[in-house]
Amino acid sequence: MKTLRQSFAWWCFANRGVPAATLLAEAARxxxxxxxxxxxxxxxxxxxxxxxxxxxxxHDTLTDGLNRSENAVRIKAELRVNLAKAVANGIPVLxxxxxxxxxLSDTAGMETAAETLGEVAAEAERAGVTLAVELLNSRVDHxxxxxxxxxxxxxxxxxxxxxxxxxxxxxxHMQIMEGDVMRTIARDHRWFAHYxxxxxxxxxxLDDQQELNYPAIFRAIQRTGLAGFVGHEFIPRGDPVTAxxxxxxxxxxxxx
Length: 256
Known about the structure:
Blueprint: E1 5-9, H1 10-13, H2 20-30, E2 34-36, H3 43-49, E3 52-57, H4 72-89, E4 93-96, H5 106-127, E5 130-134, H6 150-160, E6 165-170, H7 171-177, H8 181-188, E7 192-197, H9 214-223, E8 229-232, H10 240-255
Parallel strand pairs: 1-2, 1-8, 2-3, 3-4, 4-5, 5-6, 6-7, 7-8
């Protein structure tokens, strides 16, 4: 069965006592294939050690996003700038954000988000890049975020109707909002271009101090034949290299 390609979110592991170049080199040595949200100035360093930029932000901002018509011109311009960077640097995913509700109905927000994404979708498809709307929890970490349910995200993708518009399924966030992670993956995986992990509660490591059964979840993802990345986005409790090693080993062992 196909091995899961692993990446890690830079913001979680950087600035924790390990120099950036060393952290990237160690991640590559451990077997990581990519890195998410890496500072652009470090892209050449990542390439030198054999890491792909697996995903970057497609636009600003998380809270003021796709769901508001007044943001459409700005976001489309930002997406096009980042599409060019993605093509030039072999980046497969631009992460997009619904924005907060701010009293906007879920239907109205979806319609606007779909219209904005739809105007860039063909360009992304020609570039071989996926626009992945990230699903985030609105109960703990991102109050009022609109894209806080899998069903909303799937309906958005269906409304756009383009193969370049998909979702970033964040396991930690969706555990908080709705649970039923493995059934959701089995049912909706065709819409998931990229995954993020973290332990719940607390966004800690993928260990026995949290409630998610990550070995079983990784096997569920593996069964889908995922072409993209599983990105670890948790806060390490100690040395970041040790934490990266444990997450990588857990994933490999689960899928062996």
